[in-house]
């Protein structure tokens, strides 16, 4: 979105469109939830077409401003843009309604997938192994695109490679958080901030008091849930803590959730690498946010109640962060030092995803030369032929189903 000229223009304060009905808001969000294939960048294009051009709920400058804010925050940027627009239309309740409409189609589809594949041997089912293989192509595409944007120079490239090496040498969720923090510090010390362009203000119906309370709840849960987990033997508390922490601390978009969730869920024995990556592959074939992978993972762990709890825990940080940030964003984004820190953080995100491309994605999926050929073909279809991810997923699943016939 950074090549959109409206992001860089100076403009007067932007005003949100007058509030509308919750039914109208839900209908617009549900339409996007059923049709928005292609990942977060594509989602932002769909949002612009529906909310800015077709419905004219906000202008181009206001929309660009929301995108800038949500790309700065951890969590799923496209979902946070949708939540923000809902809040502009109808306050906090509007944000909830917008999120439900955009999220529920893919969440239901992935939870159902977990039940349909329950008890399946992913090593024996060729089409399921095809889903593991397509993950190699999808993550490789994400690494390639993010590296060109977020690590384009020697300093940031070095941060990315160093982060990848240390992530593989120190495989833990807490280690990744420490590496992200260290990269932010290096960004502050080594990367120039440049000028921060003036941006229009966002009209939002959230008070500063509500914003401050949201930050208190966000950090209270982030710090309190691990303590509760240690003091309790409840598997539900452990699940909520894991999904909430990942939802709070994932920078760089949906694909970066892969290594953090894998580190949280596979080593404790809640699922196997094969189950985890099968769900990740399936998530490429459905519309909506990639974070709805949490519904699949929760269903694998604890059925439909697990799907609901994991989904809510994963997205709750996004609500709190958006609510807390919208009224305060003008003050935060005007500081050049924040931009330098963010450059370092984003470079480390590329490194974390690069490490995930090797383990668990490559090590779990690529066993034979046929596997590599199928992954290479899927990568070419994504990068060169520009096929939508869902079509490439179907191709890889079919290729995996044919595997026993060719061996």
Automatic annotation (TrEMBL):
Entry membrane topology: Multi-pass membrane protein
Transmembrane feature ranges: 92-115, 127-147, 159-186, 206-228, 235-257, 277-299, 306-329, 341-361, 368-384
Highest taxon of the lineage: Bacteria
Pfam families: Chromate_transp
Main location: membrane
Species in which this protein is naturally found: Paenibacillus gyeongsangnamensis
Subcellular location, record wording: Cell membrane
Name of protein: Chromate efflux transporter
Record keywords, A-Z: Cell membrane, Membrane, Transmembrane, Transmembrane helix
Gene: chrA
Family: Belongs to the chromate ion transporter (CHR) (TC 2.A.51) family.
Keyword Membrane: yes
